[in-house]
Amino acid sequence: MSTVEAPVKQRAQIKERTLRTDNWRKYPYVTFVIFTAWVAYATVRAMWGGSFYVPQYHYLTPFYSPCVNDACHAAIGAGKVGNAADFGTFLPKGMPFFIPYAALSLPFLLGFRLTCYYYRKAYYRSFWASPQACGVKEPHAKYTGETRFPLIGQNLHRYFWVIAGLISLVNTWDAINAFHGKDGGFGIGLGTLVLLANVILLWGYTLSCHSCRHVMGGRLKNFSKHPVRYWAWTQVSRLNERHGQFALITLGSLVVADFYVMLVSSGTISDLRFIN
Amino acid sequence: MTYKAKFKVWRGDEGQGELTDYTVEVNEGEVVLDILHRLQATQTPDLALRWNCKAGKCGSCSAEINGMPRLMCMTRMSTFTEDETITVTPVRTFPVIRDLVTDVSWNYQKAREVPAFDGGDVKPGEFRMMQQDVERSQEFRKCIECFLCNNVCHVVRDHEENKEAFAGPRFLMRVAELEMHPADVLDRREIAQDEFGLGMCNITKCCTEVCPEHIKITDNALIPMKERVAGKKYDPIVWLGSKLGIVKKGENTPTA
Q1: Do A13 and B229 make contact, defined as CB atoms within 8 angstroms?
Q2: Reduced to 3 DSSP states, what percent helix, strand and coil does chain B have, rounded to the nearest 5?
Q3: Taking CB atoms and an 8 Å limit, are A9 and B97 in contact across chains?
Q4: Does one domain contain both B117 and B227?
Q5: Which of A60, A199, A207, A212 is the least buried, fewest Cβ under 10 Å from its Cβ?
Q6: Number of domains within chain A
Q7: Do the Cβ atoms of A147 and B132 come within 8 Å?
Q8: Of the candidates B48, B82, B102, which is a domain's last residue?
């Protein structure tokens, strides 16, 4: 007896990469430009080795914090010399230019942002086109996601988060230190406010992290048995909704803080003082 | 206000087909599904499309409208300009049966592979669930199984060979829901990674973008699940702790 085979079912063969008519290229292209510009700026500044400290007002840019090169003991800024090494130094003077003065923090902060769930979305879309936008065919022939080296390392995000938390404490110290007046007492200038705003935003970014949400209470099966952790999870969840915004805003605030300190330190502008 | 809209509708079967042009009347307040029904009633009675509730609750009328996965019944014509040509194609990830109707049985196969809820020794009537625990999984229970998330996910959309190893956002969300259930005694972290392909997800959030129920699939299910899997499989301190006998390893869920 002959049998009739069911027809082989195939996907609809549509040759266009996408049929989207909206401006889907905007997100990946704008993200690409912003991230590339930021990385270029941060690389130049981190390796510059100058104009990072204002001794009169104790302004230290976040790109040099904590300052662990021996050169930080005699940091020049706005025509004066001061000690920017609040946490000690372990790198000798004369290191190659690509070893930043903040060698203890910058690699971890880079790791924190690279493994961040928000940034992953952003750079997978804009740098790796995987995919560039929803419903747009990606160009890669094969895809294994985050199952293999090196991308399996994204699972270490929680450790970068812990270290980023410690570095945020250092940045908080820097911001408090910036309440320093000309005569050595209390003082507030525009730089103080810029550094303070930056550190508040950095805390917003660090505490809204998905790993933080997991540690606070997300890992629990049973919220009702852990009311305090449930409360903490609820608070972090609220912040977490804006994690992407914090991620982008802090890119801007870091550049603003660094650029302002650089301008004052190099003597290009003088700090606008409110008190002392 | 009535006008004539230009439509391109994919027509064909067994994968082969083409975009066919139509001009159809549109009235105020209508959605794309209304227009396709009018097309069916007035110009092309053999147009195949799947639909049921017309209220965004059954998940039947999934299609791609101007390239974006959407429910036809929830896409208002007022979101398009009158001179815009609207393209309607079947969802791309699943094999086409005819015109806009696709075979979504892959999803049901994946659904069957997820180990069911296991309450352990709890007897009927003994288990009490508090509101805060209910709320967490309540969000995931809003899913109407339209499979737009599984359709848009590039892991299978652009790489059909991954269909075996990847369950798609919808069923990874189901695994997460059970993993977060206070009464479920199974440890689903190992299978989430090894059998349902959580590691393939690169959290580009397209599933969240297209979900008609606005479930935060990525932030509330996939990323929390990734963090749980990281704790089980990739955390060096947990690994060291388990070697030293400080951290107790839970029983893995048996393979489906």
Answers
A1: no
A2: 40, 20, 40
A3: yes
A4: yes
A5: A207
A6: 1
A7: no
A8: B102
Residues 6+ apart with CB under 8 A from A162: none
pTM exceeding 0.90: yes
Q: What digits encode the pLDDT tens for the residues A18-53?
A: 999 999 999 999 999 999 999 999 999 999 999 999
- CA separation for the pair B11, B63 (Å, rounded): 13
Distance CA B217, CA A92 (A): 49
In CATH, what number is assigned to the domain containing residue B202? 1.10.1060.10
Domain closes at, from B77, B102, B127:
B102
In angstroms, rounded to a whole number, what is the distance separating the alpha carbons of residues A254 and A167?
14
**How many whole angstroms separate alpha carbon B232 and alpha carbon B220?**
19
pLDDT band at A185 (very low <50, low <70, confident <90, very high): very high
Cis peptide before A131 (omega within 30 of 0): yes
Write out the residue range of the structural domain in which residue A144 sits.
26-275
Task: Name the DSSP letter for residue B230.
Answer: I
Residues 95-134 of B with CB under 8 A from A: 95-97, 102-103, 130, 132-133
Does residue A17 form part of some domain? no
Establish if A174 belongs to a structural domain.
yes
Q: Is residue B254 part of a domain?
A: no
Q: What is the pLDDT of residue A124?
A: 98
- Full domain range(s) for residue B20: 3-102
- Pairwise CB contact (< 8 Å): B90 & A12: yes
Nearest residue on chain B to A15, alpha-carbon basis? B18
Task: State the nearest Cα–Cα gap between A18 and chain B, in angstroms.
Answer: 6
Based on the domain organization, do B203 and B125 belong to the same domain?
A: yes
Same domain, yes or no, for B120 and B209? yes
Distance from CA of A241 to the nearest CA of B (A): 8
Q: Do B154 and A130 touch (CB under 8 A)?
A: yes
